[in-house]
Amino acid sequence: MSPPASDPAQRLTELPFPPVTKTHILNCSYHSWHPRYRAITPKARLVPLPDAFLSYLREDGIVLPPDNEDTPEWSDSDSGIFSGADNEGDDADDADNYDPSASWRDTHETIERAIDDLGGKVAPKLNWSAPKDATWMAATNSMECRTPNDIYLLLKSSDFVTHDLEHAFDDTADEDANGSIQDPPASASLSVPYHLVLRKWVTLNPSVEFRCFVRSRKLIALCQRDLNHFDFLFKMQDKLRQTIQEFFDVRLRDTFPDPSFTFDVYVPPPHNRVWLIDFNPWAQRTDPLLFSWLELLSLPEPPSSNVEESTPEKSDGSSEYEEDITEIFRPEFRLVRRDDPEAYGFTTPQYSAHKLPKDVVDASRGGEGNLREFALQWKEAQALAEQQKAEDSDDD
Ligand SMILES: Nc1ncnc2c1ncn2[C@@H]1O[C@H](COP(=O)(O)OP(=O)(O)OP(=O)(O)O)[C@@H](O)[C@H]1O
Ligand SMILES: [Mg+2]
Prior knowledge:
Elements: H1 8-13, H2 22-27, H3 30-37, E1 44-48, H4 51-58, E2 63-64, H5 74-77, E3 82-83, H6 92-97, H7 105-117, E4 122-125, H8 148-157, H9 159-166, E5 195-200, E6 209-215, E7 218-224, H10 231-235, H11 237-252, E8 261-266, E9 275-281, H12 293-298, H13 320-328, E10 332-334, H14 358-364, H15 368-395
Parallel strand pairs: 2-3, 7-10
Antiparallel strand pairs: 1-5, 4-5, 6-7, 6-8, 8-9
Bound molecules: adenosine-5'-triphosphate (ATP) and magnesium ion.
């Protein structure tokens, strides 16, 4: 028998989120919000993905379409990844003729044209997730892609992308056609219109990327996305908070379909223009970064005078009181302090738990030689990451 809702043990193990609906998850998908916010988002192209392409993404192993010009030599023998062309040896005949893109050639070509359209370099993502955990697979060690194959390699290596494909609606409540929660759950499930999102590549300065938390259409908290300490942010904290608050009030507060959500912004120098990068659901799956979800769920809300279009007047006709309240409430803006990294548990590299995609492990099982080679590369990559970490902390 399941414990009653009032059982203290249950209260301790479950965060008090309002039910997360599939509609809410879909509202945070790039393809749903992008048309509404195109003007405030860096240039992007969306490519609808047919089932055949989705099957390719879901397949085990990483086989790339033939691409003589852009597939580097090392990709055939060194890592278990191979392109349809250029294979040598006894087993190569089949692979020579195999083009995984044969059944989605149109999509491949659309992607090629979109990359061109966006100036030759793009940052890819699926409906919700970018392959941030797979950049170590890429020759550039980043999400910068110049060819369709660069994109496929990243997408197929990413656990975050797999989550979009296989677990988009995990832990969501069922709802009826009007969006009301169904009890008992309805069996009908919403299907996901999968899209490849290609964003024109820009070299972003991670210090001015922020995640913002909105509860009941009120901006209650914001914080850095990058978990390093940046001294200069402290001096401009008030200005940044005000700029982002205004952006939220004007652009998002009344237009986003759900009352609670998170959004990510980029505020490049001179810090007076805000770019929308992404939305994430108000749900446990979203990383609360410098906050905990329990804090975010229980932080005090601003008085409503801070969010109303017009402040109601007092009986004597003045609105001084409301202005005072507006003055007092500030969404909490959390930055990483100089001596903070330990406190926040940043001693492990970000996404370290995701650095070994299943596909790569599978690829490395091709025999002892392959495994040894793979292990060597793995060690090198780790040493490089350690070195980078040491350099970063020296800078601090
Ligand atoms: N156009 C771009 N060019 C280069 N890099 C970009 C671009 N857009 C975003 N990025 C970088 O990619 C990172 C991840 O992008 P995004 O926030 O869309 O990923 P995500 O998977 O939704 O992340 P999360 O899981 O944290 O919500 C951003 O923090 C930013 O540093
Ligand atoms: Mg996101």
